[in-house]
């Protein structure tokens, strides 16, 4: 079978032909390059209007007109661009009299890696321009295990370079500038498997602004000053922070799902430092890692044609009348017709808190000694040594402090027997006999809701309350406060709830009653505003 793919979600007008017999993919692309600033939707759509017919013609003639189906990016993306590419795809399917396939662009970014690596059920990290998320496959659907709480990763980097006056796209320029940089401390924000870039980006711009104000007459190529931060140091550190955040949440997702395969997708995946970090992390935990070649990472119609072929084979085609584009098409809305009903399931190779298989813990090695647990935050080879030392120290100290404060707030936690800060090691009381991930019930979900409400009423935030960070005994115990902090803000409290529900939705067959009970438990003692904020976070328009 030969499938023609059409891609036109934002900047890349592209057509491709995938031949399922030979597994070869021919791609023809034409990039829109804004003269100044970022991507303008109207200009980008004009570019699509000119370039799509051209790239389609090249691809069709490459296949000698021998095409069995037409697949196109149905969304997400910029409406005006999607419309142009969608119209072209519909017209082509009509003219050739072949079926039409509507592909989710984000799922295509990840399926291309799975297809090439021949992995069964990997965790997928998408690092693209307008998005950033972790997907796992469970019970016939992609589940969003974690995602950005504000902008996509590429857009965050591009906004920073726009601030510097550099042309679009900024990602490759930051990568080049980072080669001569040294580490400076910048914010690092992960919440469970979610993460955000806005604080980090403001700090980066601030650091550079200090430089440019004192260099006002120095011209754009001169970035150094005596008291400011050299721009290459900011670029270097930006990469170190952002990619370490993405790698950390990927590792957490591997740990939570028990998967030992990771694939990368999206344009930012072209960055060698990101790939290096992911590769090192996987190597350290004995997982397999795959990143497709660059032409399949950045936006391209090849990935649309490859997934389109699988969908067409599964009979997943769409009548022209029902083929409307969807600018907000989320990957978890896609009915996955082309995969067997396999799952990345919780429990798979994951022992209780990683106890019998210490390698599996996301962050720490945990050893059982009599009735005590020795938890050591091991150095992570993928992180910059300074960042690594800071994170291990800060999290160890915070964890010890917050475990005690939480207990005082009436939330059961293990007693802290001893702390060794230089070794980032805690000796803790052994509590419970299973993880909540192995023993989640409606009643326990409710009990946990109540515990988090109590924690929040004392202005404490857990930071990572997934089902793996709750122990089950005669009652529930909260463990692993390493991402915790003090805050009385409803947004921070709501994020705790969001993280828990994300871990349930990513792994439970029927998450709905569990989440409802959890929220009911929270509502008994917790603040109504937090639950309202939770609903808002869920529906928040992200990815600007
Ligand atoms: C919806 C769709 O239009 C969108 N696609 C998209 O944004 O294009 P993509 O090719 O996946 O990613 C482009 C981004 O990838 C970044 N990028 C490219 N090369 C890079 C590099 N070497 N280092 C860091 N970022 C890089 C660019 O700066 C830009 O932000 C998406 O997938 O989110
Ligand atoms: Fe993309």
TrEMBL record:
This is Probable bifunctional tRNA threonylcarbamoyladenosine biosynthesis protein. Its cofactor is Fe(2+). Fe cation binds at residues 105, 109, 299. Keywords: Acyltransferase, ATP-binding, Cytoplasm, Iron, Kinase, Metal-binding, Multifunctional enzyme, Nucleotide-binding, Serine/threonine-protein kinase, Transferase, tRNA processing. GO terms for cellular component: cytoplasm; EKC/KEOPS complex. InterPro entries: ATPase_NBD (IPR043129), Bud32 (IPR022495), Gcp-like_dom (IPR000905), KAE1/TsaD (IPR017861), Kae1_archaea_euk (IPR034680), Kinase-like_dom_sf (IPR011009), Peptidase_M22_CS (IPR017860), tRNA_threonyl_synthase/kinase (IPR009220). Residues 26-305 form the Gcp-like domain. The active site is at 464 (proton acceptor). PROSITE patterns: GLYCOPROTEASE. It comes from Halolamina salifodinae. It is an enzyme of class 2 (transferase). In the N-terminal section; belongs to the KAE1 / TsaD family. Component of the KEOPS complex that consists of Kae1, Bud32, Cgi121 and Pcc1; the whole complex dimerizes.
């Amino acid at each position: 079978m030969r499938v023609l793919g059409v891609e036109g979600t934002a900047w890349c007008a592209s057509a491709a032909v995938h031949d399922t017999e030979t597994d070869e993919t021919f791609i023809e692309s034409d990039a829109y390059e804004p003269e100044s600033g970022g991507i303008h939707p109207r200009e980008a759509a004009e570019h699509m209007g000119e370039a799509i017919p051209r790239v389609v013609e090249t691809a069709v003639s490459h296949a000698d007109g021998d095409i069995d189906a037409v697949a196109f990016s149905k969304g997400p993306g910029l409406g005006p661009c999607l419309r142009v590419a969608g119209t072209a795809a519909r017209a082509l399917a009509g003219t050739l009299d072949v079926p039409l396939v509507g592909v989710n662009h984000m799922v295509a970014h990840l399926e291309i890696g799975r297809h090439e690596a021949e992995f069964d059920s990997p965790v997928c990290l998408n690092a693209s321009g307008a998005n950033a998320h972790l997907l796992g496959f469970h019970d016939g659907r992609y589940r969003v295990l974690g995602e950005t709480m504000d902008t996509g990763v590429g857009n965050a980097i591009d906004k920073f370079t726009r601030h510097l006056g550099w042309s679009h796209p900024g990602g490759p320029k930051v990568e080049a500038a980072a080669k001569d940089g040294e580490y400076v401390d910048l914010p690092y924000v992960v919440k469970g498997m979610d993460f955000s870039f806005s604080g980090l980006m403001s700090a980066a711009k601030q650091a550079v602004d200090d430089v440019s104000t004192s260099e006002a007459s120095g011209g754009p190529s001169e970035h150094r000053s005596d008291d400011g931060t050299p721009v290459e140091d900011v670029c270097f550190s930006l990469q170190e922070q952002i990619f370490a955040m993405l790698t950390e949440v990927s590792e957490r997702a591997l740990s939570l799902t028990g998967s030992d395969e990771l694939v990368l997708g999206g344009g930012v995946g072209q960055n060698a430092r990101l790939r290096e970090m992911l590769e090192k992390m996987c190597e350290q935990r004995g997982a397999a890692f795959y990143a497709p070649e660059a032409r399949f990472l950045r936006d391209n119609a090849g990935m649309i044609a490859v997934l389109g072929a699988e969908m067409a084979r599964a009979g997943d085609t769409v009548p022209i009348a029902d083929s409307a584009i969807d600018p907000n098409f989320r990957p978890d809305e896609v009915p996955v017709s082309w995969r067997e009903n396999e799952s990345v399931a919780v429990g798979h190779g994951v022992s209780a808190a990683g106890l019998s298989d210490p390698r599996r813990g996301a962050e720490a090695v945990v050893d059982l000694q009599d009735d005590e647990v020795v938890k050591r935050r091991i150095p992570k080879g993928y992180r910059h040594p300074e960042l690594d030392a800071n994170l291990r120290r800060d999290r160890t100290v915070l964890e010890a402090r917050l475990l005690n404060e939480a207990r005082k707030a009436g939330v059961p936690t293990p007693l802290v027997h001893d702390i060794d800060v230089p070794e980032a090691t805690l000796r803790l009381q052994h509590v419970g006999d299973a993880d909540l991930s192995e023993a989640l019930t409606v009643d326990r979900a409710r009990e946990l809701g109540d515990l988090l409400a109590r924690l929040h009423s004392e202005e404490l935030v857990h930071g990572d309350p997934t089902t793996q960070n709750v122990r089950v005994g005669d009652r529930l115990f909260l463990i692993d406060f390493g991402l915790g902090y003090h805050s009385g803000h409803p947004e921070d409290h709501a994020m705790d709830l969001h993280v828990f529900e994300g871990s349930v939705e990513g792994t439970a067959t029927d998450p709905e009653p569990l989440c409802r009970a959890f929220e009911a438990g929270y509502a008994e003692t917790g603040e109504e505003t937090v639950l309202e904020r939770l609903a808002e976070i869920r529906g928040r328009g992200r990815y600007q």
